[in-house]
Amino acid sequence: MRAKSAVTAAALALTVAGCGFGPDPADVPKERVELASSAGNAPAEEATAPPDKVLAARESSLDQHRFRVEVVQFARRDRFVNLTFTATVTEGDSALGWQVNNAFSAVPKQNADVDGVFLIDVKNAKKHLVAQDSAGGCVCSRITGSLFLKKGDGAVFSATFAAPPADVTSMDVHIPNVGTLADVPLG
Asked: Given pLDDT bands bounded at 50, 70 and 90, which one contains residue 145?
């Protein structure tokens, strides 16, 4: 599954890097960037093992399950930033496991995704929302209602944002139901 996650991340990066996007995000007053492509929605991938480098982590709980979120990629790509994080259930004993569903969405919805994640550029006092494709959907992982994680199971999620100015070397990452991970280094 790790190779599948890498392929999905690479495809998303190529899709984002290969499109023309209009004005420079630094010149756009509103931090939600509309992308020219609609190929950005990628489903959440089940993970068998987290990547080697954890940039930030936090424990949280929801629906009688405890889980650990780890930011494993936070990289600048031209005018965009790609964020990848994992969620792994650490405690919980229900028969089906934790239904992730809307855990990371901005608002509850039938077709959940991770559009509730946002970045904070503390240096410039700006909030960066998940980028949008030409159809208005987020350039982020979708979460199907059938994604259940039992103790020890994990999944990989990703989201793309407008990049901050080049002199910004870290940002705060806010993940719904987890909180804010401060000063995550931006590669």
From this structure: confident
Residue 92 has pLDDT above 70, yes or no: yes
What is d(CA 169, CA 23) in angstroms, rounded to the nearest whole number? 23
Model confidence band, residue 8 (pLDDT cutoffs 50, 70, 90): very low
Neighbour-count burial of 24, counting CB atoms closer than 10 A to its CB (0-12 exposed, 13-18 middle, 19+ buried) = exposed
Longest CA–CA separation in the chain, Å? 50
- Residues near 47 by Cβ (< 8 Å), separated by ≥ 6? 1, 2, 5, 86, 88, 154, 155, 156
Domain ranges of the chain: 2-185
d(CA 74, CA 56): 10
Q: What is the pLDDT of residues 93-111, one digit of tens each?
A: 788 888 898 999 999 888 8
Spatial contact of 128 and 95, defined as CB atoms under 8 Å apart: no
Q: Classify residue 126 as exposed, middle or buried by CB count within 10 Å of its CB (0-12, 13-18, 19+).
A: middle
